[in-house]
Amino acid sequence: MDTPLVETPAWQALARHRQAMDGVHMRDLFAADPERFDKYSLKLGTLLLDYSKNRLTDETLPLLLDFARARDLEGWREAMFAGSPINLTEGRAVLHTALRQPKGATVLVDGRNVVPDVHAVLDRMGAFATAVRDGEWRGWTGQPITDIVNIGIGGSDLGPVMVTQALTPYHHPHLQAHFVSNVDGTHIAEVLKKVDAETTLFIIASKTFTTQETLANAHTARDWLLAQGAPAEAVAKHFVAVSTNAKEVAAFGIDTDNMFGFWDWVGGRYSLWSAIGLPIMLMVGPDRFAELLAGAHAMDEHFRTAPLAANMPVLMGLIGLWYVNFWDAQSYAVLPYDQYLARLPAYLQQADMESNGKGVDRDGRPVDYSTGPALFGEPGTNGQHAFYQLIHQGTPLIPADFLAPIETQNPVGRHHTLLLANFLAQTEALLLGKTEDEARAELAGQGLDGEELEALVPHKVFTGNRPTNTLLFQKLDPHTLGTLIALYEHKIFVQGILWNLNSFDQWGVELGKQLAKAILPELEGGARRGHDCSTAGLIRVVREGLR
Ligand SMILES: O=P(O)(O)OC[C@H]1O[C@](O)(CO)[C@@H](O)[C@@H]1O
After folding, report:
1. Mind listing the GO molecular function terms for this protein (predicted)?
2. Distance (Å) from CA 115 to ligand 1 centroid
3. CA of 487 to the centre of ligand 1 (A)
4. Percentage, residues of the chain above pLDDT 70
5. Which residues share a beta bridge with 402?
6. pLDDT digits over 444-459, tens only?
7. Which residue has its alpha carbon closest to ligand 1 atom 4?
């Protein structure tokens, strides 16, 4: 058996280095090195990563990079790009990168070049999106489409929602996008209140086309359309499907001519670049969608070819792992200072936590080290007025990524300057903190003294030394957004490899699905089955009510 990860020389060297860093404060590292920003920042196109505000000395990165090499990160990276079946538990290749390859490239899966297949679907999507956008695709009464309702969940929802919102300034002026994911009937009911059956297009997005929530919502949407007076033939004009499962699409009643396919080598949470991105393309048009893909491809090329020491996803992955495994950080914040990126944290929750929220390694052995942290975040200054207290003064260490555009899409008065001032102030505050002496002087300056002053001092101290990455970009355009998302995808890949996980399966979501299927008949009046007494008691209360 291989040496356990935590006993490998590279891990042990990091553990020793971590001990030697006790008492090192980033404030002192900055004071000692005026070049630190230049040394620890990296630019790709119009995206800058400043990782200088991390607990890194000149020794840290070389040790982290040694660890990455010892785990053969470069070999695994090559295997992913080459289409090897690195998703072992499902026997699949992991090739979302093939979805953003330019026409003419070659990516072989089982000896077949899949790039022409990718572009054939993109071309079909483009023709369809153009017909809808130009008003040529019409509903059953001959009216052009005004509203698009995407029905999907998880990877068939979060990416399209996040990107569609992020690219709001590029939307078609006469189209509205809506997203229904939750099986809670409230979700679809509220959307259906807003749309007109004659001018609404439903996209049923499901890789498997067996997902309970999506099928329930899809059936409700179709029943609603017919209840609005549409004839059965209208379904063909108002429903399209995005899936890998033509059989189930046909069984639902959608003509497979109205289906946009993708492939089992596209993981759900990595699928927004595929036909799952259809609502994005409808809203921003095929050209902007191509820019999104090109932005992701630029990051793919960077990740694939840049030396590890100058490779954004590698550095972000290693720095994240440094905190999880050597500083006991169990959570991680993503803080976009751009209202259009409001759903980025939710999107990354699935991308990161469904990928690396694993407790056994690739060989099925329980791990004895921490893996993926809990991820959370909120846009801009909203987070500051909610949970930043914990990040600044709480007991857990919460590494955070701060993201902002230099240029706003909405230059309203001084708003953007105010936003950026806050953005910059937060990472500075987390780095420097406020010492007791500084707190004391500040309170004295406010006219306090004696016991009253001393009683307040501990509450006013900020330890600082709290790590952040800053991601600054010129403007949130489709290309930049593609680059940013691919950065996080590859960062997640890096960490999964280093933790020896399969980042591309998600068995952890299955048990709840199985038990829900078993409980459903009980809630519908069927015979009760064996449960723990809490679940049995709750089922009884649900059935009997609390009145
Ligand atoms: O696209 P589908 O097959 O409906 O699956 C939706 C989501 O369900 C999951 O399989 C589990 O929640 C996700 O990985 C996936 O994104």
Report:
1. carbohydrate derivative binding; glucose-6-phosphate isomerase activity; monosaccharide binding
2. 24
3. 22
4. 100
5. 335, 470
6. 999 999 999 999 999 9
7. 206
